[in-house]
Amino acid sequence: MARLRELAAAQPARLPPCRRRRFTSAASLGAIVAAWAGLLTGCTVGPDYVPPKPVMPAGFTEQSGSATHAVNEVQTSTDAWWEGFGDATLNSLMTDALRSAPDLAAAEARVREARALRGIAGAEQYPTADAGAQYDRTHGSANVPVGVPPGGLGPGANGNLWQAGFDASWEIDVFGGKRRGVEAADASYQAAVADLGDVELILLAEVARNYIELRGVQRQLAVARSNLSIQQDSLSLTRSQFDAGLASRLDVLRAQAQVSDTEAAIPTFEADERASIYRIGALVGHPPEQLLAQLDTPQAIPLAVADVPVGLPSDLLRRRPDIRAAERRIAAANARIGVAQADLYPHFSLTGVAGLESLNASTFLTAPSRYFSIGPSINWLIFDAGKVRFEMRAEEVRTDQAAAIYQRTVLGALRDVETALVSYAQSQVRHERLAAEVTADREAVTIATRLYRQGLNDFLSVLDAERSLYAADDKLAQSDRDTALALVALYKALGGGWQETADASRIAAQRP
Question: What does pTM read for this prediction?
Fold first, then answer.
């Protein structure tokens, strides 16, 4: 923004160069001022906005090498990114969130507020007028001379005053300060719309994340119960072996301890399951208990049914609503430099009043009761101890701040995508290894149990095999959950959908 500061500093406290026309000496002063003001309405002080052009890499680093097999470019895309999981319940929750989520309602209210403020800025470019009427009954004081209000008709004199009329004023935007104000309000409104898109993206990602965590804990609960059943069978077998004199009491105690340990984990999973349901209810705008019937039935962890269209890093400037909002805030701050700078130059106004005035009701509506006054005025701030220039400097610094925040937002977006890409790719690799481990552990349990029944192995081998199976099953469930969560993080990092964004459509539809 150093260039913006140079442009602002180059503006002197004199009239900017605009076209002027000569007038004959016979022209009235009012006509000269009015014509001159009309010619000057094309001047706009302050630096013109130049959008930032950050240097973006040619491609994502993690899209090559180990990540290539995990995430590939495809031609089809959708704004409803969550439909890529192929889960009807998740789709229903997203619809509910878009319709009734409190966070989204608050963001939409901020958009409506920004629209109203834009309307206020636009209205300041037009004339204002008001009308009024009054009636006064006066009695003159004997102790004051004639003409002193309120009873100025004379000592002891009574009178009436009937008045009705209107007055109007219009400050002509000669140097574009008000137009810069509209420009700033426009950019602020567009930033609010982009913020709405960001809130929507964050909200939907949170709903998806909590839904995946719910299905993940349900999967862990199912794994615990399945392994508990295996362990209870082993306990029954051990007791039978003990009763037949083929096993020691130590084996029975070890089997019982393993069963109790697994039983102790189940209440924690059940509590986490309910907590996830309640969090989802709060996010979508429902009472916490309302979703119990819908979500209490376990379902599979949602996984991707299609590849993710990653695209190019430069696409993030269009996709990510937080980047669009940061760019619009630079534009708003830059326009406010011109708003402040306009106070260095004269302010031209046209004012006028007209109406009826009479001391008698009988003559109030007659032609002689008419009055009017109209004329131009000029107001130029001569001395303010540098206040306007300090205001300009403050706006320049705010523009620099907005530019720095924009740069930080762009870098953060690149970081988010790279992190999500590597997490998603490596979570898939981990899932493959854990699936192989579960298969091996399940076979080991079968073999160890068979050998124990035949008396060819001790019970410790059975316990070790069952513990390994339970741990591997639990890690595989967590891996499925983490893979789905990494995919949500990737969708969020990329900005959600890839067609024309909904908030861009809202800008076109809602612009006042």
Answer: 0.78
